[in-house]
Structure formats: structure tokens, C-alpha cells
Amino acid sequence: MTNPPSEPPPPTVDEPMTEDTLPVRIAAAEAMRRLNHAMVAHETDPELLQRIAREANATAAVVEAGARRQRPIRQMKTQLWQTTPEEGQRLAHFEECMVSGRANPMGIAMQPRRQGDRIVADVNFGAAFEGAPKRAHGGAVAAVMDDIMGYVLLLTATPAFTGRLSISYRAPTPVQTDLVASAWMDRRDGRKVFLVGDLRTAEGDLIAEADALFVAIPRERLA
Fold first, then answer.
1. pLDDT of residue 5
2. Three-class SS string for 82-146?
3. pLDDT tens, 176-219?
């Protein structure tokens, strides 16, 4: 017995993040993140979980029936390097980034900003990022450090990719707790850009340290 032919995928449409579409995408992502963390952190009635499953699957089917998005990622990345961030400016290289994107429903929603020659970010790992109970997964911590280091490159308009990232975990990382991540450039040797950073509690206690090698690329490769 042969399988029936699969349906063709929905057509693609260009959908740049506009002032009209971005706020509603962020609002929907925030609501889904809240639900994700709530389901991990709280006891839930089985009937409610069944209702969540039914409604989530039904909603997903409606969304999947729509046209597939095609975003101008290359253009967005190119625009990123055209201006230097101002002091205190909230930064976002891609609003659906899993670490610092506000429009990612499964993201960490880190909030980076410029502070002199450093990038500083407020971080709060929700319950859904647990590795061990009440502790954030080490991979989530590494993702935060990699992402915040990428923002440091904006200060010198240096496009680069991660070549190596090393994390030293000094203490367990608590979930549902306000933390502060920081990153800055240590030195540069030709195309090699050496960055360092750390993750601390709001009181300044050290949780993790990171150092990385980024490899710079010509800006014209982004065009």
C-alpha cells in the first residue's frame, strides 16, 4: 500500500519585523514563555493539561496552515553593523534569537545594553531552563555568554563568528532569579578577537566565567 502524496508546503512570504507586527509577536512569545515556565514550576490538574494540549495543537495547526515566513536575515545582519550602540541602549541583533530575542516563544529573553566598553545584560532563567531541579542547565548559561559576547563586537563594528568558547562554572546557577551577565574585549590579534565575561547574582556573587575566541570576517561578506 502506497502512502498518499504529501501536501505541498505553504507558500513563503517576506515578513520583515515592522512596527505593526513586532509588538504582537513579542506579546504572543511572552505569553507562551510564561506558560512554559509555569508548567515546569507548578503542579497542574491533569484535565487542565489535557485542555492545554488540545488547544495548543489546534492553535499550532492554524498557524502551520499559514504562509511560511521568509525573513531578510542577511539584510538584517548587514544593518546591524551600520551604527555603534549608544550608552545604555537596549540591544537586539535578531528579535527571534533564542537568547536575547523578545519574539522567541522558547527563548531566554536576555536584555543586553551597552555600559561603556562592556555589554551588560539582565538575565532570569525561567523554570523551563532547568538542568537539575532549581538549577539552570549549563548549556543555557553557555548560550548566554556566547550571545552577550557577540554584542561586544558591535562596539568596534567587527563582524565575527565564535571559534572557541570556554565556560568555568563557579557556582550553581539558580532559576527564577535575577542575574547579571557582562562581557568585554580582552585583546585582538589580527582576525582573532579574544573576549571575556562573567555571570553574577544581583549582589555580585560569581556564578560563571567565560573566555572566547571570535574570528573576524570582512564586512562585505555580509552583503
1. 43
2. CCCCCCCCECCCCCCCCCCCCCCCCCCCCEEEEECCEEEEEECCCHHHEEECCEECHHHHHHHHH
3. 999 999 999 999 999 999 999 999 999 999 999 999 999 999 87
Report pTM: 0.87
Query: Are 75 and 20 within 8 A, CB to CB?
Result: no
Q: Give the amino acid at 127.
A: A
CA gap 40, 44 in Å, rounded:
9
The strand pair at 135-136 and 130-132 is best described as antiparallel
Chain centroid, CA 51 distance in Å: 29
CA distances from 115 to 130, 184, 188 (A): 29, 10, 20
Beta bridge partners of 209: 168, 198
Amino acid, single-letter form, for residue 73: I
